[in-house]
Amino acid sequence: MFTSVFLLLAVLLDKLLGEPRRWHPLVGFGSLVRRVEAALYPADPGHASMLQMRLRGVLGIALLLLPFSLLAALLARLPYLGGVASVALLYLAIGARSLGQHAQAVVDALHGNDLPLARQRVGMIVSRETATLAAPDVARATIESVLENGSDAVFAAVFWFLLLGAPGVVLYRLANTLDAMWGYKNQRYLHFGWAAARFDDVMNYIPARLTALTYIVLGNLRDGWRCWRQQAPTWYSPNAGPVMAAGAGALGVTLGGAARYHGSLKQRPALGVGRMPGTHDISRAIRLVDHGLVLWVALALLAGTMMELSGA
Questions:
Q1: What is the extent of the structural domain holding 183?
Q2: Phi/psi of residue 255, each to 5°?
């Protein structure tokens, strides 16, 4: 019961305060990641084998994730202060309000017919090039970001907190951040970042599918389920595929398609069904994530209450 109450309090804090604007722990963690990388990455990677590079990456994961996860476990066990620590750590891991604010900023720019500003703002939440995007492409990119980050930054964090408490959510959030920094399939990180990418895939496997289920339950169930089953296997990410295909089908819009990354045009499979998204569909995607979070909290409170009553 305490776990579900802690979840409710953390979600309320996120809705009231949003992410800390200064001194966010993940910023400091990012600096630490760069230091560990500088220490472990060989000066002459050409003389290191694939196995050696992967082992260096595994060591980096251990050095960066285990101490903080153990510290979170110790903090959560403190008398009286353990609950406060658990709520605070989950609050810092959830990014629901920040996600909605970034997406809403794009909506506001599009409503104001300021396409250059909309391109600039969507560029803050996606990795593709945005300087030449048309308005429908800006909407498409924003919706894709909302759906995928709804899984990564919201529902997965809640899942691991409900499963393992404070150490679970800290382990997940730091692993997800590490994947964002090392999980690239380029020359530098193909082998060094291999373990970080695979570990993040494992931790997101169940949460991503629960997120997809949440989207289709709260949207168009039939189209969402069909898109999930038929289109998700075509996507290049094993976890983003179900999330984005189900979300696109649930919203009744078409996502995916061509996008430019680092100067190269990437032909991505189409996801979803129906028309190209418009500005109002961004708001629908934000509501889908918000309503999904309310559903998860309600179910957690219900489950906690039933367990408390059954044990009484």
A1: 2-311
A2: -120, -170
Q: Tokens 């903080």 label which residue?
A: 68
3 vs 5: CA distance, rounded Å: 5
- The tens digit of pLDDT for each residue in 220-247 reads 999 999 999 999 999 989 999 999 999 9
User: How open is the CA angle 311-158-76, to the nearest 5 degrees?
Assistant: 65
Find all residues with CB under 8 Å of 165, minimum gap 6, and list them: 3, 73, 76, 86
> What are the pLDDT digits (tens) for 196-221?
999 999 999 999 999 999 999 999 99
Query: In this structure, are residues 1 and 302 in contact, taking their beta carbons and an 8 Å threshold?
Result: no
Element (H, E) at 264: strand 264-266
Task: Report the domain count for the chain.
Answer: 1
d(CA 228, CA 213): 9
- Helix axes 96-111 and 279-311, enclosed angle (nearest 10): 160
